[in-house]
Design a protein that fits this description.
The protein is an alpha/beta fold. The strands form three sheets. A six-stranded mixed beta sheet has the order 6-7-8-3-9-10, sandwiched between helices. A four-stranded antiparallel beta sheet has the order 2-1-4-5. The protein has a four-stranded antiparallel beta sheet with strand order 12-13-11-14, covered by helices on one side. The protein is elongated and about 80 Å long. The chain folds into two domains: 213 residues, 3-Layer(aba) Sandwich (Rossmann fold), CATH 3.40.50; 75 residues, 2-Layer Sandwich (Alpha-Beta Plaits). β7, α6 and β8 form a beta-alpha-beta unit. The longest helix is centred in the last third of the chain and has 25 residues. It has eleven helices and 14 strands.
């Protein structure tokens, strides 16, 4: 549905987007994840035609956003980080205005507006001035504008920023429901938000794409992500040497458990063991022979936070190394 090819946005020597390429397939919720200043909003503004690119192309359902802007934009619903609302309009007036801008047939406008208001649950405030609405309701009005006309792609830039916990949950539920009928791209720097609603995650930093995959595959790809968490009856002193006997395992952390006389152990697979999916039997019999009963054993995976930090730290280190090389190679003045 969306294809981004070699996208570059240069602001006077600062690359906000650095040769970015990716594809967005139909019928999924994509999370566009990155720290503040990573280039998420710039990329989205280019994808929706709000900004021009220094280099590269964006195709929406086969239509180039720069060469065929009208055909491409008809397929996009966009909610910027700051919703484009007119505070002196009522909700109904604003959506009528949006329907005209989107060139919806006059006969279909009333039904389309009623449908989106029911979907985002703002029917009860339809006659109120937007300036008198809470931030949560204003966000819902912006969402209604984005999905008016049933665009095939909905792009949401930081849709929950500034909302309270109850409003955040409501907006997340709304995004999940939209994902059943639309392709959704959700930009955020809040990892829990992306993890809660997205089928596919794209991680960017410094304008570069670091990873693009499902949350599950990202976990598996991360070095050392696979492991086990054990609760064992026994002391740390008794447990440590026994674990060291098991080749290909490393005890990343051993802590005192909540129950008296227990330890909580986080094990990580190393070397060839990292390719194995189940070595619980070996661990069980090894500890049982030393009379160290395992009270619980559960798989552990790297959290999205750990994945994000490892990827972005690698990029930061590479950038710093390149800067150091460039500085050291400069001739003396």
């Amino acid at each position: 549905m969306i294809e981004v090819k070699n996208l570059v946005k240069d602001y006077g020597g600062h690359l906000a987007v650095d040769h970015l390429s990716f594809r967005v397939e139909d019928g999924q919720i994509y999370g566009f994840l990155g720290p503040n200043g990573a280039g998420k909003s710039t990329t989205m503004n280019i994808m929706t035609g709000y900004l021009g690119a220094t280099e590269g192309q964006v195709f929406i359902d086969g239509h180039d956003i720069l060469e065929e802007p009208e055909a491409a934009k008809k397929r996009i619903g966009y909610l910027p980080e700051i919703p484009p609302l007119y505070m002196d309009m009522t909700v109904n007036e604003y959506l009528e205005f949006a329907a005209c801008l989107k060139k919806l047939p006059k006969a279909e406008q009333k039904g389309a507006i009623q449908e989106v208001m029911e979907l985002v649950k703002i029917t009860d405030v339809r006659k109120r001035l937007i300036r008198n609405l809470s931030k949560g309701y204003r966000q819902r009005v912006g969402m209604a504008q984005a999905i008016l006309g049933k665009p095939s792609v909905i792009i949401l830039d930081e849709p929950t920023v500034g909302l309270d916990p109850k409003q955040i949950i409501e907006i997340r539920d709304m995004i999940k429901s939209l994902g059943k009928k639309h392709t959704v791209i959700l930009s955020s720097h809040i990892l829990s938000e992306v993890s809660a609603v997205c089928d596919h995650i794209m991680i960017i930093a410094n304008g570069k794409l670091l990873a693009s995959d499902t949350p599950e595959n990202l976990e598996q790809r991360l070095k050392g992500a696979a492991g086990l968490e054990l609760v064992v009856k026994g002391s740390r002193e008794a447990l440590q040497p026994v674990l060291e006997e098991i080749q290909g395992l490393a005890a990343e952390r051993i802590e005192t458990g909540n129950e008296d006389g227990t330890c909580v152990v986080n094990l990580q697979f190393t070397g060839d063991r990292a390719a194995e999916t189940d070595i619980r039997e070996t661990i069980f019999y090894t500890l049982a022979r030393r009379r160290l009963p395992i009270l619980s054993m559960v798989p552990s995976r790297a959290s999205l936070e750990e994945i994000f930090l490892e990827l972005t730290e690698d990029l930061t280190e590479n950038t710093e190394n390149q800067d150091s090389i460039a500085t050291n190679s400069c001739p003396d003045q």
